[in-house]
Each structure stands twice: as C-alpha cells, then as structure tokens.
Amino acid sequence: MRSEKDGIPQWDREEIEKKLEDESIAFVDVREPDEYEEGHIPGVPLLPMGEIPEHIEQMDKDKTHVFICRSGGRSQKVARYVNEQGLERAINFEGGMLSWEGETKSGKEKRVNDTSDLYK
C-alpha cells in the first residue's frame, strides 16, 4: 500500500516487488558496503548514504528513484535530501530490507562509481 511521510511517497514490500523490473525506476541501496554484501535485492546498486551528495548533480531529475536501507530510516532521510535538491520523484522503501521477503544476493554485485551506473 502506498502512503506518504514528510512529503515523501512510501512504498511497501509488495509495491517494490511489483515495480522492481520497471526500467523507468532507479532503485538505490543506500546502506554501507558491509550491510549490502550481507544481502541485497539482486540488481539493485549500492550508493552509500554518505556518497549521495557527490552524485546528486548527475542524477536524472526526470527519473523516479526508490531508496532502500535496512529499515527505511536512512532511505527516508536520503529521499528527503534528494527531493530538496530537485529530485522530485524520490520514494522511500518503507520497512527496508527488514521487511523484504523476496530473493536476496550476498557479496559485492553492483557499486555505483559513476552516476550512470544507476541507470544500467
């Protein structure tokens, strides 16, 4: 079910599962590398929360971005931050990985080094 918190749309696990294959949406895991390597949603790239400011200018303002963390707290902060910077289509994964019941992958998979890595 969709809801909103502090002006940021919130998607739950079911909404994420439905939209995961939608190439018009950029899913971004904002946890730390060790958390990501323990288990993440396959295909979702890692861009740690602390690195968002250095990539914000190159992020596609016309694209929807869904931010993911462990429980939904950090990703909410990131979604609010990028929204304030002009990314108006920022969404938080409410409940985060703690609520994820789908497939996960461990280890390093996809780390964002260049912002274009978000859109592949």
UniProtKB/TrEMBL annotation:
Protein name: Rhodanese-like domain-containing protein
Entries under InterPro entries matching the protein: GlpE_sulfurtransferase (IPR050229), Rhodanese-like_dom (IPR001763), Rhodanese-like_dom_sf (IPR036873)
Domain Rhodanese: 21-105
Recorded superkingdom: Bacteria
Organism: Salicibibacter kimchii
Coiled-coil ranges (or none): none
